[in-house]
Amino acid sequence: MKYAAALLATPLLLLLDEPTANLDEAGLAMVEDVTGEWRAAGRVVVVATNRPETAARCGDQLCVEDFAP
Description:
Helix content: 40-55%
Number of helices: 3
Number of strands: 2
Largest sheet: 2 strands, parallel
Radius of gyration: 13 Å
Order of helices and strands: HEHEH
Structural class: alpha+beta
Shape: globular
Distance between the termini: 39 Å
């Protein structure tokens, strides 16, 4: 439901916080498909995650640890 609400307005920037948390394989595939379609359409998808497997599916990455003093 939260994904449907976010996608209804068709924003150019989609911010997702832990989009794969608590999802089964079908849910993971859906998130990957939707975010891939959005990127292919020239939209920006920003994902915040602690899961290396989710981060591995992303293009550019910014690691907060890289900015620690």
